[in-house]
Amino acid sequence: MVLLVAGLCGAPAHAQTGDFDWNGSLAQELAPGVLHAHVQVTDPRPLNINVLRIDTEAPGVGFFTTPRHDPWIAGSHETTRQTTRSFVAESQSTDRPLVAAVNANVFDFTSPHTNLLGLAISDGTLVSPPQSRPSLRIDEAGNASMATTHVGDDLSGIDTAVSGFAFHLSNGNPIGPFVNLEPRTGIGLSENGRYVYFMTIDGRQPGFSEGASEGEVGVWLRHFGAFNGINMDGGGSTTMASWNRATSGTGLLNSPSGAERAVGNNIGVYVPEPASAGMLLLAWVFLARRCCRIDRSI
Q1: What is the pLDDT of residue 273?
Q2: What's the pLDDT at 110?
Q3: Whole-angstrom distance, CA of residue 155 vs CA of residue 149
Q4: Within its chain, how far is the Cα of 264 from the centroid?
Q5: Is 142 helix (H, G, I), strand (E, B) or coil?
Q6: What is the rounded CA–CA span in Å between residue 279 and residue 283?
Q7: Distance CA 115, CA 1 (A)
Q8: pTM of the full predicted structure?
């Protein structure tokens, strides 16, 4: 038996077969252009999966990842570690208030200041140099792409980038191995480049969510609509957090395998908050008065 759940809704379905219906009742809008799906299956084993589908063509949608540590030293002091939930919370006082985020690059966590593995770029600034690892890259125009980034590659025009271990979905084909069940974080991209997918699969929780193989990251990303996909840092780092605009607080969308880990790198999506009716009325009054003043001056 397989059960898919989103919010308080549930419906029987087969895991990993066909395409996920993002227009159905199992998808919940977190913000314009950002949909969340919560999927639970019992076959082939208990799994708890959370996915964000981000429409890069939706008005105002943007990405932001962990900035440089100050002072920045490549290879040792590249970022300051923090939990994904803290990353989301701190963003609310900036001009990029995040809707949700996941952990990203693999990192050396021997100290509070970390060395990331693979390319990382935040707000157009290089945070970690490339190391021939697969990367999600967002250019200055908001276009998303995926490629293995090597030393010496032209990085101009890239606004945001994060990297993972390896491609486990390539041109629609999942790539193994299909062993070693662990918590996993995956990032995918649709064939036309319009949709970015953030995915977490919980693990190390017998009877609730027992983890997935690297190859299954590709299988599940394809199910949700990706054409290419990367296995990111996982294990105890796997975390998906969101901001609740109604309560003005952060929450976890997934169930980490232990205490929330301060990770070296996170990536989130932000969307401008819609103006309230009151703010729109004030803007209208301001413009009306301004027009009246102009009319009287003619």
Answers
A1: 77
A2: 66
A3: 9
A4: 15
A5: coil
A6: 6
A7: 43
A8: 0.88
pLDDT in tens, 26-36: 899 999 999 99
Question: How many Cβ atoms sit within 10 Å of the Cβ of residue 93?
Answer: 7
CA 250, CA 242: separation in Å to the nearest integer? 6
DSSP state of 205: B
CA–CA gap between residue 221 and residue 52 (Å, rounded): 11
Q: CB-based contacts of 218: which residues, under 8 Å, 6+ apart?
A: 167, 168, 169, 170, 173, 174, 175, 186, 229, 231
> Rounded to an integer, what distance in angstroms lies between the CA atom of residue 249 and that of residue 246?
8
Strand partners, 267: 65, 102
Strand-pair partners of 186: 199, 231
Dist. CA 73–CA 93, nearest whole Å:
27
Residues of the chain predicted below pLDDT 50: 1-15, 276-298
**What residues contact residue 153 under an 8 Å CB cut-off, 6+ apart?**
130
SS3 of 64-123: the string is EECCCCCCCECCCECEECECHHHHHHHHCCCCCCEEEEEECCEEECCCCEEEEECCEEEC
